[in-house]
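ping. complex inputs:
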Amino acid sequence: MARWILISILTLGLVGAGVWGYQEHQDKNAILIQAENSYQRAFHDLSYHTDLLHDKIGTVLAMNTQQQLSPQLAKIWRLASEAQADVGQLPLALLPFNKTEEFLHDIGDFTYRAAIRDLSNKPLTDEEVKTLEQLYEQSGVIKNELRKVQHMVLENNLRWMDVQLALATNDTQGDNTIIDGFQTVEKSVAGFGEEDAGPTLTGVSRENHEFRGLNGEEITEKQALEIARKLFALDKGQKLNVTKTSKGADVQTYMVSYQKGDENGYADISVKGGHPLNVMVERPVNKTKISLHEGQQKAEEYLKQFKLPGLELIQSRQYEKEGVFTYVSTIDGVRIYPDSIHVKAALDNGDILAMTSRDYFMNHEKRDIKKPAISEEQARSKVNPNVEIREHNLAIIESDLAEEVLCYEFLGTMNGNTYRIFINAMDGSEEKVEQLKATEIKFSSEV
Amino acid sequence: MSKKRSFLYVGLAVLMMIIMTTSYPGKPVEAFSNQVIQQGAVGDDVIELQARLQYLGFYNGNIDGVFGWGTYWALRNFQYEFGLEIDGLAGSETKQKLADASKYDENFVKKQIRKGRDFTYYGGIPKKQQVEKKNTGGQQQPKEKKQQQADQPSNTAVNVPNGYSQNDIQLMANAVYGEARGEPYVGQVAVASVILNRIESASFPNTVAGVIFEPRAFTAVADGQIWLTPNETAKRAVMDAINGWDPSGNAIYYFNPKTATSNWIWSRPQIKQIGKHIFCK
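pong. complex structure:
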């Protein structure tokens, strides 16, 4: 009797486990299919967008009227950015596919800049047309390769989940058609070579040049330690660790760090000249005792030791218990926005917690500032008349084309919002308009 | 006898209470603390500043306790009208003038803020008319959490770096915490910088979410650790990165040499090692 009871309980348990397992299996499958579908969508979208991209560039090449050109270029720009977003959704992060992504980015950049230009005044130059022709050809190659992969995927019912698995296990032997296909695409893009893209396609990303502002002799590790010790105001007994950056760094620095109780610090000291580029101290910050204004004074006191001339505060903000201050250098009252320095002060006792002068030393150089070609009045007339201008001064900013331009800077308000407007001081064109929005309602607290 | 005594005590107590309440009429009537209030500041002084400026009709924005651009222009206009030096700073002279010219009913203002009501505070208009009645019924949650409120500033807004929402910051903090919670602080800032550098980079998506959720980009996303609740340190690391610190040296990749599975990652030019992570281009 007892045996039968036991057997029936076990059978019931077995059946139960079976049902449960089956349901789990179903659930897992459903989720896998979901994931697979979203990969598939991204992939098919990608090949479709590349195809369309190719077509559109072809259309633009055949176009004659300038009025039509701008919208078409804008369309290409949009397609390129969508294709890029598609790539971002595929599990390719560890597969070298960045040449293709960069290619898409370059197309986007090129067409964007052409599209925003007043083409009736400045039509496409011969060189630009040539670049477009090249882009047409190259996008054609990519399109064909992608269509081939797509065909294979559809023909053989290939699944992206397998790609993910293959990449995860780093299985190089197992040939995976999709991976191979994408590698072919990548190789074909790499074959285009850098110079093919034309001179207009380089130097758009900021921070792509070397550090111009660093001067002075190379320092030794020992000197770096001394500089850091002084910077952190540490006594002789405090142990400091130091390492040097590897070869791939834009700028060689000594990285000095220390641990003192619950406080730890880090500094990047440039090998050339021994300038502190990054300074960070981490410690618990207590209740706010001093005002943001006092924090600013502390920050300025701190900056004095670096002997950088003519810094002007352009922004101060309190984030909970810390104040962050942004400074730019000025020459004869002209603000040099690329030369910026940030300082962070703890508002419990005014200690400086962090400083970064990377941007400053990257961009700072001897500049001769030209006289503006237009007057402030003329520049003012270029600003939207609905904006009430409240402040103005001269400034150097980096334009969309990564060039430094002299501008009139206007701060003004419209409908209760504040805007910063830069008007080129040479030709009066509107270089940049930004809405200054620095606050957001608290979502978290239910006040 | 004992009855008489107790009467006496009660009488004394009542007398004491009367004396106390008359000699300390609530809070001391003093305007502002003695700090110089400048743009970017948050807290009670800013609430008072905004309320007083609004009382006089200079400020039309929300009284939210954050000294933003709207407050800045209002203050400058006030300084201009009252013949003060126009510097956009609320120093002692400005605060004095402001306190003399306006009234500040702290209880009223704080109460509206605490109750989360839409309200204004213009002088010369009955206060009751300036409070927006919420007709959402059901009494918006009973949130008289006094203890908590007491030591928290009552500002209803916060500063955020240009172009970022608190939610973006939270998402990044999640990623940083999931990826690098055991790392030194600088290492966490560097991981946050990598996310930002990727947004800038040509070969990655252009949004915070795009970069973070790119399949196979971050292990913390793949194994779900991104949904752990980040601590304050991770959040501060993200804020530092957004505010301009990049200790990674402009890196767009990083990996842990002990656990890296891909050979390809070793071929990237390396910049530096912080904690367990090697940062590279």
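The first strand of chain A starts at residue 241 and ends at 244.
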